[in-house]
Fold this sequence. Notes:
seven-stranded mixed sheet, five-stranded parallel sheet, 8 helices, 18 strands, 23% strand
Amino acid sequence: MSMDKSFQTIVIGGGQAGLAAGYFLAQQNDSFTILDENRRTGEVWRNRWDSLRLFTPSKYNGLPGMPFPKPDFYFPTKDEAADYLEAYAGRFNLPVQHGVKVELLTYNDQGYRISTGAGSFHARNVIVATGPYQKPYTPAFAQELDPTILQVHSSAYRNPGQISVQNILVVGAGNSGAEIGLELARAGKRVWLAGRDVGRIPADKVGRILGGRPYWWFISRVLSVVTPIGRKMRSNVLYHGAPLIRASRQEVLDAGIESIPRISGVLSGKPKVEDGRSLPAEGVIWATGFRPDFKWIDLPVFDENGYPRHQRGIVQGAPGLYFVGLPFQTALTSALLGGVGADAAYIAGQIANGGRSA
């Protein structure tokens, strides 16, 4: 490619959020490209743990214009999700440039400048669609644990064969923690699952009623930033994890997993539970989620927690800068395959209107 390229809009990130944004930009005949640091579409999904299945059934996993090609209430594997994204990009001929890592985003009188290892790009509008899984988070006290204790973040976990020890503490009782804990327990490990109860929205049962319409309406419209219950849940989701969707607390108990309160620190090199006891854990899986990592955006648009200050993905104080795919951007569904399209449509509409209806 040439060293300098200009577009009306540049999308940063070629996962589900970036592809959904691209779908609507293409419909608007926008001059745009999608920059993706991965070598292949769907790479983020392919790199998750071996047995991972989506936490929502196929009926709710379609991006705009292309239903997920599996039975409605089937839970797809992570590789099926990756293949679907790759097929989606191909079907709509979306202009994804792979292997292009954005190093810096700045703004000047001419618009936005995107510096990458493959040269500079310029655009009037930028959509940041880098997704919720950015910087794996582990608490600071993790480094105080006895060095003989095996520590693995959920992003690096692949399968029970990777875990050589018997007594495992899984920290974080959201979807990832519950599912990894279940897999380890079924492989014969002794497992503690630490963390607050994040609640449950049973997509497997309630989600089937009336073809799933009431369920999807609830998680996309009621659990949204415009309702009191939605705003309360947004705070929980951003800092404590989303509600369980497929696994249940009962299933965890039935598998012989011991549910315990939060881990509050370290006692004599061992994990210390909030109730004061220490655990004889030989390994810790940190299912403690991710934190935003927007250091490459050199603009004063972030709050004290590193999240962009925005209204439905429109960034205040930075005309032409938008986000799609943030956790709970507008609703619980915002970062999900089946929910990201609504936010992408809204942002593409803003760009078509020149950003006038923010």
